[in-house]
Write a structure and sequence with these properties.
178 residues, mainly beta, Porin, 12% helix, 58% strand
Length: 178
C-alpha cells in the first residue's frame, strides 16, 4: 500500500509542471457595444472594459471586470450612462493551439447613472446573474484577441411589476497573459 501511495505522489509531483504551464494571470482590454432592452431612446455609445483573471489550469479560471459605456437616453429623454462590475467563473475549451472557446457565469453589479439636470444621479443599481460566451485567437502564448457576448441581467432598480431594463454587450479586445 505504501508503494502505491509513493508512486501516486511521485507521478503527481512530476505532472505538476504540466498544469503550472497553463495556469497564470491575464489582463484584457476590450471595446464594447452595449444594448439596453427595452431599447433606450438612444442606445449608449461604445465603451471600454478592463478585466483580469487567473487560470487555474487550461480549462478553469476566475475573472473580474469593469466596463463603462458612453451616454444614451431613456424613453423620457433623460441622459443615462451604464456601467457594470462583475466576478465570474470561466470554463475554457482549447480547440487547438490557436483557438479557445469559453463560457462564463457570475454575478454583476450594474448601474445606470444620469446627469444632475435630469434629477437622477443614480437611476438604479441592480445585482444579478451575468453569463457570456466567446472565443480567443491566440497570437502567441502571451497575447490573444478575444470576441465575446455577455448578458448582464437587470441594469436598474425598477420596482417589481415594472419593466426592468436589461443589458447585453458584444466585445472585441486584446488579452495579455503573464
Amino acid at each position: 500500500m505504501k508503494k502505491k501511495l509513493l508512486a501516486v505522489a511521485l507521478l503527481s509531483a512530476l505532472s505538476a509542471p504540466a498544469f503550472a504551464e497553463d495556469a497564470g494571470f491575464y489582463v484584457g482590454l476590450d471595446y464594447i457595444q452595449l444594448a439596453l432592452n427595452p431599447a433606450a431612446a438612444t442606445q449608449p455609445s461604445g465603451g471600454y472594459r478592463i478585466d483580469g483573471g487567473y487560470n487555474f489550469n487550461k480549462n478553469w479560471g476566475v475573472e473580474i471586470g469593469y466596463f463603462g459605456s458612453g451616454n444614451g437616453s431613456d424613453a423620457a429623454g433623460k441622459s443615462i450612462t451604464p456601467n457594470s462590475t462583475y466576478l465570474a467563473g470561466v470554463g475554457t475549451y482549447p480547440v487547438n493551439d490557436m483557438f479557445d472557446i469559453f463560457a462564463k457565469v457570475g454575478a454583476a453589479m450594474n448601474q445606470l447613472t444620469g446627469d444632475s439636470t435630469t434629477g437622477c444621479t443614480v437611476c438604479g443599481v441592480q445585482t444579478g446573474v451575468m453569463a457570456g460566451v466567446g472565443a480567443d485567437y491566440n497570437v502567441n502564448k502571451n497575447v490573444g484577441v478575444r470576441l465575446q457576448y455577455e448578458s448582464l441581467g437587470n441594469m436598474d432598480g425598477t420596482a417589481a411589476g415594472s419593466t426592468q431594463t436589461t443589458g447585453s454587450d458584444v466585445a472585441l479586445g486584446v488579452l495579455f497573459r503573464f
